[in-house]
Amino acid sequence: MHFQRQKLMAVTEYLAPRPAIPPRCVVPRREKAEEDNGYARLLRRQVEEVFRNNRMIAVCQYNSMPGEDVVLMRHYLRKHNIEVKFVLNEIVRPVLSQSKYKNLLPLFVARNILLVSPETKVKEMLRVLKGVPQVNLLGACIDNAILSRQGVENFAKLPSLEATQGQTVGALALLPSQTSSLLQRGSAHLTALLDQHIRQLQAG
């Protein structure tokens, strides 16, 4: 083909109009399923152990704070056997969604930390958090009961288990003693009357 003809054919070649919307914006992209790696499984297993081995798990919103303040907070909490756990939402949420703690899921929407303890040290935890405004209590799971922030504060006002047990034992011991005194009152009164009658007869 002559060179001039080749140029003419190239200039007059039909070009389809470009679509107004790029095809990549119309066809949804298929997200590749991320393969589950061993590190994520390890973190999920640690979260499961935290919820299984502790009686108190408090969920708090964590705002950035100086490292020295974090160390001090952890120190004061550790004095009361309370540990601080920094967790990722993408690790915690799958664990909670398949457990009995799924009602805690709405709390994990921002950067969170967990305050965990094998004992219910609620008063001590609230006392420490009162001096740390960057950490806000959202809710807690105490003895398998899910509580709001107000519920945690109300729980802290309850007397200790030992004091409650002492009051219960005292109340239970009071009833038999009162019953025993009521049963003995009649015989004691009769004995006193007979003694007085004998003395009167001897005096007469």
From TrEMBL:
GO terms for cellular component: ribonucleoprotein complex; ribosome. It comes from Charadrius vociferus (Killdeer). Keywords: Ribonucleoprotein, Ribosomal protein. This is Large ribosomal subunit protein uL10m. Signal peptide: none annotated. Belongs to the universal ribosomal protein uL10 family.
